[in-house]
Amino acid sequence: MKKGFWAGLLSFVIAKVVHLLITGLIGFTIGLAYTQTPEDMPWGFIRVIDSPIIGIIFLIFASMYIYGKLTNNNQ
After folding, report:
1. Higher pLDDT, 34 or 70
2. How far lies 61's CA from each of 11, 36, 44, 51, in Å?
3. Which of the residues 2, 6, 50, 75 has the least number of beta carbons within 10 Å of its own beta carbon?
């Protein structure tokens, strides 16, 4: 794929979908692990994983990685 706006937009959208899947799976796993005792849930860990700063950092690095893979023309 050629470098440019559309490759960057596609890489960001793919990174956002991956981000939602990863955080959803982490939350689902924590929820399943603490179904018997929900008052013992690790709320500090949940707040860190769900924080906007961690999400933005993940999106930046994931978008850069995916953009590099999309625009790599070595065949």
Report:
1. 70
2. 11, 36, 24, 16
3. 75
| pTM for this prediction | 0.85
Q: Tokens 């953009």, residue? A: 67
Nearest-10 Cα torsion for 19, 54, 42, 39: -70
Distance CA 31, CA 38 (A): 8
CA 11 remoteness from chain centre:
12
Residue with tokens 């993940």: 58
Output Rg (C-alpha) for the chain, integer angstroms: 16
- Of the chain, the end-to-end C-alpha distance in Å amounts to 12
Question: Over the stretch 8-66, which tens digit does the pLDDT of each residue have?
Answer: 999 999 999 999 999 999 989 988 888 887 788 888 888 888 899 999 999 999 999 99
**In one letter, which amino acid is 62?**
A
